[in-house]
Amino acid sequence: IQRSFSSSVVRNVVIKNVTIIGGGQMGAGIAQVAASTGHSVTLVDMTDDILKKAMKGIQSSLRRVVKKKFSDDPESGDDFIQKVMQNVSTNTNPAAAVTSSDLVVEAIVENMKIKQDLFGFLDKMAPEHTIFASNTSSLPISDMASATSRPDRCGGLHFFNPVPMMKLVEVVATSSTSPETSESLLNFTKALGKTPVCCKDTPGFIVNRLLVPYMMEALRLHERGHGSKEDIDIGMKLGAGYPMGPFELSDYVGLDTIKFITDGWREKEPDNPLFAPSDLLNKLVSEGKLGKKSLQGFYKYSK
Ligand code: 3HC
């Protein structure tokens, strides 16, 4: 870091202290990976109960990781888990959690107003050099950045589910993101052991822009009576090498999430056939059948 006494903060930030806002599946996964790679992590959510659940999730995911990584040395595996857990602290007060943060990653509800309020609030609390990143899957990062006085230090860090397993992170630069911020985010991603790709702040970035229309077309193909869910899933797994078929993957991602993303894009481009709705998807979501997390979506799951 080039230290300077000027008010200019256009510099490269080496990210050590990370604050993750949101202890859901994505937030907990990001916290886990950052803590596993020696970062000091503060995980923030609204209640201690949520945070307790998130810490439990991190621990059980670490056990799965360790079972493979330390298969012939379980003791070192236990030490590793303990060390990683020590790198994570929790806090229900976002203001207190950002006072020494180099990077804030928000992984909260996909609601622009709530994200803007959060970024606007944290902007006043966090040090000048702190970078703000969003893990949003489909909302414009620039709209969140505009709620802060630091749009040059805002960007996207889009992780994939399950975060500990998926090697990719999309690093999103808006038209205001400074090259130093992008570089810091790219370096952070590499320090996590992930592979970054650079994206523009466009709907769905790279992966979801291709993946979500693909999943929607699988649903519509099924609705047209041109294939059973099972055959479509087998087809894409064995014929295209996907680890999960589109129906399995939709259940895994969450049907409400797929619907939310598609509905948002259709509002912006009503005539784009890629964003056409699916009656079946709408019906399942309205019945609360949201996929794996609710134990029923296109398929049924046991706990
Ligand atoms: N934590 C730690 N380890 C995990 C894990 C987790 N949450 N999930 C899976 N694993 C590891 C474990 O080591 C597991 O071994 P275990 O059975 O001993 O615990 C190993 O993965 C294998 O898992 P499974 O046997 O359960 O199943 P698979 O071999 O199919 O692997 C998978 C699971 C990695 C999830 C694989 O199926 C896959 O890659 N699926 C596609 C996922 C994908 O496309 N994700 C992107 C979704 S889009 C998205 O996230 C963007 C958003 O914005 C919408």
UniProtKB/TrEMBL annotation:
Q: What is its EC number?
A: 1.1.1.35
Q: Which reaction does it catalyse?
A: (3S)-3-hydroxybutanoyl-CoA + NAD(+) = acetoacetyl-CoA + NADH + H(+); (3S)-hydroxyhexadecanoyl-CoA + NAD(+) = 3-oxohexadecanoyl-CoA + NADH + H(+); a (3S)-3-hydroxyacyl-CoA + NAD(+) = a 3-oxoacyl-CoA + NADH + H(+); (3S)-hydroxydecanoyl-CoA + NAD(+) = 3-oxodecanoyl-CoA + NADH + H(+)
Give the residues the record marks as binding NAD(+): G22, G23, G24, Q25, M26, G27, D45, E110, K115, S137, N161, K293
Which GO BP terms, alphabetically? cell differentiation; fatty acid beta-oxidation; spermatogenesis
Protein purpose: Mitochondrial fatty acid beta-oxidation enzyme that catalyzes the third step of the beta-oxidation cycle for medium and short-chain 3-hydroxy fatty acyl-CoAs (C4 to C10). Plays a role in the control of insulin secretion by inhibiting the activation of glutamate dehydrogenase 1 (GLUD1), an enzyme that has an important role in regulating amino acid-induced insulin secretion. Plays a role in the maintenance of normal spermatogenesis through the reduction of fatty acid accumulation in the testes.
Q: Name one GO molecular function term.
A: NAD+ binding
Q: Which residues form the 3-hydroxyacyl-CoA dehydrogenase NAD binding domain?
A: 17-202
Instruction: Give the similarity note.
Output: Belongs to the 3-hydroxyacyl-CoA dehydrogenase family.
Identification of the protein by name: Hydroxyacyl-coenzyme A dehydrogenase, mitochondrial
Pathway involvement of the protein, from the record: Lipid metabolism; fatty acid beta-oxidation
Recorded hits in InterPro entries, A to Z, give:
3-OHacyl-CoA_DH (IPR022694), 3-OHacyl-CoA_DH_CS (IPR006180), 3-OHacyl-CoA_DH_NAD-bd (IPR006176), 3HC_DH_C (IPR006108), 6-PGluconate_DH-like_C_sf (IPR008927), 6PGD_dom2 (IPR013328), Mito_3-hydroxyacyl-CoA_DH (IPR052242), NAD(P)-bd_dom_sf (IPR036291)
Question: Where, in this chain's numbering, is CoA bound?
Answer: S61, K68, S137
Q: Does the keyword Oxidoreductase apply?
A: yes
Q: What subcellular locations does the record give?
A: Mitochondrion matrix
GO CC, alphabetical? mitochondrial matrix
Which Gene3D superfamilies does the record match to this protein? Answer: N-(1-d-carboxylethyl)-l-norvaline Dehydrogenase, domain 2, NAD(P)-binding Rossmann-like Domain
Quote the subunit structure annotation. Answer: Homodimer. Interacts with GLUD1; this interaction inhibits the activation of glutamate dehydrogenase 1 (GLUD1).
In this chain, the site described as Important for catalytic activity is at: H158
Domain of life, per lineage = Eukaryota
Where the protein is mainly located, per its record? mitochondrion
Please tell me the species this chain comes from.
Poecilia reticulata (Guppy)
Q: Which part of the chain is the 3-hydroxyacyl-CoA dehydrogenase C-terminal domain? A: 204-301
Keyword Oxidoreductase, does the record have it?
Answer: yes
Write out the entry's keywords from A to Z: Acetylation, Differentiation, Fatty acid metabolism, Hydroxylation, Lipid metabolism, Mitochondrion, NAD, Oxidoreductase, Spermatogenesis, Transit peptide
